[in-house]
Amino acid sequence: MASKLQKRLVGTLVLVSMGVIFLPDVLDGKKEHYQESYQSIPLRDDFDASVTETPIAEPQVADVAVPDTSVKTTDEEGGASNQRETTPDSTASESIATADGAWMIRLGTFRNQDNARRLVSQLREKGYQAHILPRDLKPDDLAKVVVGPDVSKNTLESQLADLESLTGLKGQLRKFDPLTQ
């Protein structure tokens, strides 16, 4: 037979376990169930099907005539002007030749960006097309001051002496490449 101590221990364990199981339910009071309200996201928007069924109009073809261009050239010896006709094909080839032949004058590279900005503003006041490269300068970047770009190399060559007398800097004539600038 079991002793009195064993019976008391078993009885105490039963009462404690019943208290642990049922007491929280009794003390909670009225139980409320919370359910989050949400809306489902539709998988595909509803749209007007008539939009996709409307026919697309045919493109209109316009006749465009290339204007006749004549270019005046001067004879260096006599100074007389000659006039020559250019065909649309030659005009296109000239524009292609000048499109990949842009030039610029690099006046200098400056560590002090304020000096570069001052020089650019001075050049712009005198009518030159001056810029600082690269456009998005960071505080420790070197600033390159350039004049141009221009498709006429001769125009920029004629400006070299004027720029040197104005700024005291001997500029370098370079090809302009917009992808690396």
UniProtKB/TrEMBL annotation:
It comes from the Bacteria. PROSITE patterns: SPOR. It comes from Salinivibrio costicola. This is SPOR domain-containing protein. PANTHER family: CELL DIVISION PROTEIN DEDD, CELL DIVISION PROTEIN DEDD-RELATED. InterPro entries: Cell_div_SPOR-domain, SPOR-like_dom, SPOR-like_sf. Residues 64-95 are annotated as: Disordered. It holds the Pfam family SPOR. Residues 97-176 form the SPOR domain. Gene3D superfamilies: Sporulation related repeat (3.30.70.1070). The lineage of its organism: Bacteria, Pseudomonadati, Pseudomonadota, Gammaproteobacteria, Vibrionales. Residues 80-95 have a biased composition (Polar residues).
